[in-house]
Amino acid sequence: MAHQHSSPPGGANAARTAYRLRIAIGLTALFVLVEGLAGLASHSLALLADAGHNLTDVLALILSLWAFELASHPSTAERTFGLHRAGILAALANAIVLVVIAVGIVVEAYRRLVAPEPVAAGLMIAVAAVATVLNLAIALWLHRPSEHDLNVRASFVHVAGDAASAAGVVVAGILIALTGQTWLDPAVSLLIAFFIAWTSRGVIREAVDVLLEGTPSDLDARQVLAAMRQVSGVLDVHDLHLWSISSSVRAASAHVLVEDQPVSVACNILSAVNEVLADRFRITHTSLQLETTACDPGEVFCHLREQEHAHHH
Questions:
Q1: What's the pTM value of the predicted model, to 2 decimals?
Q2: Do residues 204 and 270 both lie within one domain?
Q3: Is 4 helix (H, G, I), strand (E, B) or coil?
Q4: Least confident residue range of 7-11, 117-121, 201-205
Q5: β-strand pairing of 249-258 with 283-292
Q6: What is the DSSP string of 114-173?
Q7: pLDDT per residue over 273-286, tens digit each?
Q8: Per the count of CB atoms within 10 A, which of 23, 44, 235, 302 is most buried?
Q9: Are 130 and 276 found together in one domain?
Q10: Do residues 207 and 165 make contact, with C-beta atoms less than 8 angstroms apart?
Q11: Is the separation of the CB atoms in 269 and 233 below 8 Å?
Q12: Residue 94: pLDDT above 80?
């Protein structure tokens, strides 16, 4: 059996991602303090609610950073895959928190539709405009690393949702200032809640697929199987399994049927198969078991019978 292992996450890319998360945490925490004080000064429930929403972003970003750093730890005898799944668990937790927030916004919006409250439109617009710019900047800052890490993507969705939320507050504030219709505030909040819930579902689905060891969504097992069978020297491939250890580490195991031949030649075939898996499908952790035409792949004790036959002769 041959194994190919991926290196643990690290290096310049990991350092840059951790740095971006720390900057995002610092900026968001500072703004939460400013927005909370502005909400208290203006007696604006909308601003206080948005500050609370941004506070959940800070917690989500801290959770992402913690999980990202855990995943960078090397594997141990107790955890041979390391802590790659910590990031997946953090992503799932972040997405579930977003859904809870969306439900809370719906409940509060309904309460305000039934019993409208006066809104300080001027301060609401000013602070929400700053929130929009800040959250949009942080979202852009996290966009690139979010393409390759589900954990960071969950935080990106958090912050992007807040940018949309703050933009909605700005629009609502302007309309309220022009028309005096305070029901626009909860109406926009409902749209924001649905947007947050919709964007969270993708993260939840992908995280659950990883935890259930499903085939990565962008991989077709039939295409992987066909590519492996096209490698020179491979007669057949069966018992193929594809799964993700984390959003950035993919794994595969399979039985590879080859002619009965020297081990050195067979190892070259395995190397070629591993190269195809890594280059075409980004599968960097493999466990491939060789089988030869001298044995029936279904006969577990075939090699033992061959040894006994050789001994008798």
A1: 0.65
A2: no
A3: strand
A4: 7-11
A5: parallel
A6: HS-----HHHHHHHHHHHHHHHHHHHHHHHHHHTT-HHHHHHHHHHHHHHHHHHHHHHHH
A7: 999 999 999 898 88
A8: 44
A9: no
A10: no
A11: yes
A12: no
